[in-house]
C-alpha cells in the first residue's frame, strides 16, 4: 500500500492498491474472518464508505448480517451520533437505521483505516444508541501515532477520546500500521491532487 500526498496529508493511504489484486483482497478478508470466527458476533457494521467495500465479504465469511453506518442524512429512519473530529476536521455525525440491530446484539465495526478515532467513535455511538455492544473495531491500517501521543505533540489522542466518551472498553485492531507502510507512491507525470476532502 504505497502512500501519496493528498489534501495536505503527506502520507495518505488508499486501499485501492489491494482491491485491484483479487488474491491479496481475498487474503485480507480471510485474515479478518479467521480472527473473528470464534468471537460471539451477531453483525458486521461497515463505516461509510470504505467499510462498505470491506465489510460485506467479511460478513459473508462469518455468515453474519451486514449493516451500514452512514454519513448523517443519507438514510431514513435513523439515530445519529453527535458531531465528531477526524484528521480532516469536524464532521456532522454518522447514522444507523433504527431497525438495523436488535438490543443486545454484538457488533464488529469495520473500516479501512483508523487514525484519530473520530469516525469510529461516531460509529460506536450509533451502535450503542440501539442498545448493542461493540465487540471490537477492526481496520486494515492503524495509525498508531494517534493511540496515546505525548501531550506536547499537540496530536489528537484516540485513547483519551474514547475514554472521554465512555467507550474506553472498545478495542481497536489494525492489520498493519504506518511503521511498515514505507513505500512512497511513484506519482505519474501530470498527477493532480484534485480529489475532494474526505
TrEMBL record:
Organism, scientific name = Triparma columacea
* Any Pfam family hit: Pribosyltran
For biological process, the GO terms are: purine ribonucleoside salvage
Q: Known InterPro entries for this protein?
A: Adenine_PRTase, PRTase-like, PRTase_dom
Pathway in which this enzyme or protein is active: Purine metabolism; AMP biosynthesis via salvage pathway; AMP from adenine: step 1/1
Q: List UniProt keywords, sorted A-Z.
A: Cytoplasm, Glycosyltransferase, Purine salvage, Transferase
Cited CDD domains: PRTases_typeI
**What are its GO cellular component terms?**
cytoplasm
User: Which compartments is it annotated to reside in?
Assistant: Cytoplasm
This chain belongs to which protein, by name?
A: adenine phosphoribosyltransferase
Family stated for the protein in its record: Belongs to the purine/pyrimidine phosphoribosyltransferase family.
Q: Where are the transmembrane segments?
A: none
What catalytic activity is recorded?
A: AMP + diphosphate = 5-phospho-alpha-D-ribose 1-diphosphate + adenine
Assembly mode: Homodimer.
Job of this protein: Catalyzes a salvage reaction resulting in the formation of AMP, that is energically less costly than de novo synthesis.
Domain Phosphoribosyltransferase, residue spans:
21-142
Q: What is its main location?
A: cytoplasm
* Taxonomy, superkingdom: Eukaryota
Return the EC number. Answer: 2.4.2.7
**Which enzyme type, at the first EC level?**
transferase
